[in-house]
Amino acid sequence: MRLARRPCVKIQYRDDALRAHFCKNAQQLLDFVQTDPNNKTMSALIARKALQYRHVRIDRIGDIDVRDPTFDVSHFFDIEWSKV
């Protein structure tokens, strides 16, 4: 049986600051969930829900280091950027 691949999200943008802002926020979201997986605050629950909405398994987050400078958050979320 073959696992279904998540569909890639294609985003067109004009401003590099917009892309950088998204990547920063997405990386903070992953870092927040990864820092304390047992956190039960409302913010933590919302962060986990956002990842579930994007079909990201929480156990998959443990395999990455979001603070690694080579980590590509866009690739992690299967986002393809296209500058217009």
Automatic annotation (TrEMBL):
Identification of the protein by name: Uncharacterized protein
Organism taxonomic ancestry: Eukaryota, Sar, Stramenopiles, Oomycota, Peronosporomycetes
